[in-house]
Amino acid sequence: MKRRFNITGTCSPQRHYMVRLDDRLKKIKEDYIEYGSYFVINRGRQYGKTTTLFELEKYLKEDYIVLSLDFRQIGTEDFSDGPTFVCVFVKKLLAALRYVAATDKENLRKILLDFANSSPNAGMNDLLECLSELCANSSRPIVLIIDEVDSAGNNQVFIDFLAQLRSYYLNRDRVPIFQSVVLAGVYSIKNLKLKLRPESEHQYNSPWNIAADFDINMNFSAAQISEMLKEYESDHQTEMEIPAVAKEIYAYTAGYPVLVSMICKRIDEKIIGSDGFDSPKAAWSQKGVEQAVSMILKENPLLFESMAKQLDTYPDLYKIVEDILYCGKRIPYSPVEKSINLGVMFGFLKEENGHVAIANRMFEMCLLNMFMAKEAITSEVFSKGESDRIQFIKNNRLDMDLVLKKFVEYFEEIYSERDANFIEKFGRKFFLLYLKPIINGTGNYYLEAQTRDARRTDVIVDYLGEQFIIELKIWHGSEYNERGEEQLTDYLDYYHKDKGYMLSFNFNKNKVTGVKEIQVGTKTIVEAVV
């Protein structure tokens, strides 16, 4: 069977090129299932949760009976009251038994059918007694898996079910119950009441505080991406440099599963044979990855749409992201803080060296595009960049020296009299707004996470295969500036560049504004001061 990269629904090794999950499944079984843990896999959308559960069900079948449910198949009306939910839940268990080995199936099926026929108006207590009987009469321990559990998270009936199940878990040394319960969704169970009543003071009362912390990394490593590409290469013989391509994909995605697959799918299905990528080897390259990223950012996939929706829903979260991107603000990481916790739960924030960071470069680029689009509607500096654009592009090359020169002239004319606090907070945003329409549609830029802080931000610009490194910094004296020059040269070495750019926002009254070119060792630096 021919395989392809998949970005919708469950991945299957027989149908799709995918990262192998054997190590992850082994760890889940050994660290959680065998200890009888009840736990929640809550990750952002399209994080591979459903695929993991599908493969976990197959992986456990030899030692356990696995009953796997998907709450997307249960409608809102099915949670209207306890008896309705009980009836539907039992029907779903009966359907799940179809995938259980014949030696176990009939006995368990009879217990569920007898319960359904004898108790048409059964309540939650009756259901849990039936489930206990089911576990007591099973030849092997039973593992219950429920996917998309947060589909029911705004229903009090389901929260009552969890509370009952929690009671049986606490009493399981005397009363038979499931070996393990695995719940999966975007929202953690602790936040189900938050989703139910965002304004409630009782939003953190959890019916599921028995859950073990699930700390298995579900991101793909560069090595895992390489293994997936080796399978593709075996089928297609592209002659790609697999480790280099895998490293570049990881640099953009940090291993977020669906983003990895999106890039690979765009290269395989749209970039090979397109302008500038005549051969598969040319497409499976750094430039090919960059082109795939550009295509994805223009397409606004469901994952990005969901991210924008969450930011609109939670203004405090929006403010955190804006402060990180525009101002280089270093926000201490605390999972107790509601907005930070939500951003991590949705998958687009993470902890990095004790501070909050954007989860990966592609999310950062998407968020910057979103903020820029909102700003562009009323931004004079964006309009200025758009009107100046044509003079910066010569023979399909971007004249970055001229971009800085014109920005300095414009900034001095419009913003030089602004107070220092205003410029320190928004100066970098002004430059990014000016640059955006100049490269829009042809190039991309992103902020380098390793150097971004309140004093310094490095912007990496990709334009038709050419890369520009620009350091945006707040002036803190000549000694600090010299250190910045040295840091920039080190960074140019890392990117194998001989020329870099520095834009300083200087609040010294005796400052000399303008653009000059200096040599630092073997590197050329174009320094602009406003």
Quick take:
With 530 residues, this protein is of the alpha/beta class. The protein folds into three domains: 175 residues, P-loop containing nucleotide triphosphate hydrolases (Rossmann fold, 3-Layer(aba) Sandwich); 78 residues; 139 residues, no CATH class.
Task: Give an account of the 3D structure.
It is a single chain. The chain is of the alpha/beta class. The chain folds into three domains: 22-196, 3-Layer(aba) Sandwich (Rossmann fold); 222-299; 392-530, no CATH class. Helix content is 49%, strand content 15%. The protein has 20 helices and 14 strands. The protein has helices spanning 22-33, 49-60, 82-96, 102-118, 124-136, 156-170, 192-196, 222-236, 242-253, 257-271, 280-283, 286-299, 302-313, 315-327, 338-346, 361-376, 380-388, 400-414, 420-439, 478-494; strands at 38-42, 65-70, 142-147, 180-185, 349-352, 355-358, 393-394, 397-398, 443-447, 456-463, 466-474, 499-505, 514-520, 523-529. It has a six-stranded mixed beta sheet with strand order 9-10-11-12-14-13, with helices on both faces. The protein has a four-stranded parallel beta sheet with strand order 1-4-3-2. A two-stranded antiparallel ribbon has the order 5-6. Strand 13 and strand 14 form a beta hairpin. The radius of gyration is 27 Å and the shape is elongated. Mean pLDDT is 87; it is low at 196-204.
Features:
single chain, 530 residues, Rossmann fold, 3 domains, six-stranded mixed sheet, four-stranded parallel sheet, elongated
SSE map:
Blueprint: H1 22-33, E1 38-42, H2 49-60, E2 65-70, H3 82-96, H4 102-118, H5 124-136, E3 142-147, H6 156-170, E4 180-185, H7 192-196, H8 222-236, H9 242-253, H10 257-271, H11 280-283, H12 286-299, H13 302-313, H14 315-327, H15 338-346, E5 349-352, E6 355-358, H16 361-376, H17 380-388, E7 393-394, E8 397-398, H18 400-414, H19 420-439, E9 443-447, E10 456-463, E11 466-474, H20 478-494, E12 499-505, E13 514-520, E14 523-529
Parallel strand pairs: 1-4, 2-3, 3-4, 11-12, 12-14
Antiparallel strand pairs: 5-6, 7-8, 9-10, 10-11, 13-14
Helix pairs in contact: 1-2, 3-4, 4-5, 5-6, 8-9, 10-12, 13-14, 17-19
